[in-house]
Amino acid sequence: MPLSSKDKALSDLRLRILSTDIAPGADLDEARLSDTYGISRTPLREVLQKLAGEGFVMLAPNRGAKVASMDLSTMRSFFQTAPMIYASIARLAAGARNEEQMRDLKEVQAQFRQALLEQDSGAAALANHRFHALIGEMAHNVYLSAALQRLLIDHTRMSQTFYAPASDDDRALVETAADQHDAMIAAIEAQDAETVVQLTLDHWDLSRNRMERFVRPDPLPMENAHAV
Amino acid sequence: MPLSSKDKALSDLRLRILSTDIAPGADLDEARLSDTYGISRTPLREVLQKLAGEGFVMLAPNRGAKVASMDLSTMRSFFQTAPMIYASIARLAAGARNEEQMRDLKEVQAQFRQALLEQDSGAAALANHRFHALIGEMAHNVYLSAALQRLLIDHTRMSQTFYAPASDDDRALVETAADQHDAMIAAIEAQDAETVVQLTLDHWDLSRNRMERFVRPDPLPMENAHAV
DNA sequence: TGTATTGAATATGTATACATATTGTGCACA
DNA sequence: TGTGCACAATATGTATACATATTCAATACA
């Protein structure tokens, strides 16, 4: 069946939030959005309700929708929680994956590598999101999936710069991350839970390092101080 | 501000689903419900969307809302996931709780004991739900809270019989559970994370035993076989 | 007897008008 | 100049009519 305008609005808003094209904390105007997507306010409001349920936006009575913010306390929770959930999901996925899901995962990984080759950092970030979301689906656990979905939203938003590496060192890190994906695919296919968990934790460490360096960059060299 | 009819619909549906007054898998008719709560279909649909976001109901395009089902695969995930999430939440709550939340927690525990005294098993189950949801709020972690909320929905639905103990043994178990609540309150107030985690795991074991016995009851005695 | 097909009944989905709440601006007044 | 109030402008919330999809039962046909 063809995608309805409502479905398009839903997936477009998801993508724009994940890519920080719409910034964390930004206001969403019902009237403007319903106009943009060519649907009336009623179905657009349902889209916003759905996005709220998934953790993309926050709704406040009588004052509309805001994109979920990423304040200090959110970040703290994020770094605190992610490794445990990612590892648990990985372990379950190794035990529960099926053939069709394996095909999808390989397909998404191919798209991920293609995006890296074309230096399309936005597409790479979204393919990476989809890769990890698929592993979440494999785990087949509604409780952990709810946590994972929310973690991936913030992870993807924080990693926007990751896939546009500036230095050769950073390029090597991205390459390593892609290789880890391939190793994870192999281990999940082999149902080798221990290896998948270890790879997942390594993958997390690499990503965490990059994110922490982005959040707390190296100080500027002192000799530039007079120019500021 | 006074509760609107919409808010009443939302909380009433939550309670009816938690108490299995509306059974898992049951169909929800928009027209009937909007009539019941005296609101039009538009706001009622928003209520259903919200309930879907919280994991109470499932929405399927063009075929309305169903109460979240509890099939075998759900149960399996539940027993697999609950102890880890409960323990993590408990640990965080011990570190992050504030005074107002402690007051609320003690208040809810008082309501819980009162319900036990009055042998109001429905009220006891709901107070127990609220007790653990409050600890979730204390943890101040959106990712784990998303998982906890969903776990508590199913836990409360599965525990409906727990607070209507039939034997003296079962009555003692309920009493033990209430005592564990008090010990948890004390440990959270003292910010003693290790003790809270241990108490939480003990509390889980007690509940798990009861649930497993309910799901897989002892076989009937053989001498009754001819009567079946 | 079993299976398709048609159409009425019923339910969900969408657009629009109107109701209510919030926000911003100009003006009076201290 | 600053503060508070009134009122207009704007945004969100709700009811209703209509559009579209699904379901079910009656009937035709193999």
How are the SSEs placed, and which strands pair?
The structure is a homodimer of 228-residue chains.
Chain A: H1 5-18, E1 27-28, H2 30-37, H3 41-54, E2 57-59, E3 65-67, H4 72-96, H5 99-117, H6 121-139, H7 142-158, H8 168-189, H9 193-215
Antiparallel strand pairs in A: 1-3, 2-3
Helix pairs in contact in A: 1-3, 2-3, 4-6, 4-7, 4-9, 5-6, 5-8, 6-7, 8-9
The first copy, chain A, binds a DNA duplex (30 and 30 nucleotides) through residues 6, 29-31, 39-43, 45-46, 61-64.
Summary of the model, kept short:
Chain A is mostly helical. Chain A contains nine helices and three strands; from the N terminus they run H-E-H-H-E-E-H-H-H-H-H-H. Chain A has helices at residues 5-18, 30-37, 41-54, 72-96, 99-117, 121-139, 142-158, 168-189, 193-215; strands spanning 27-28, 57-59, 65-67.
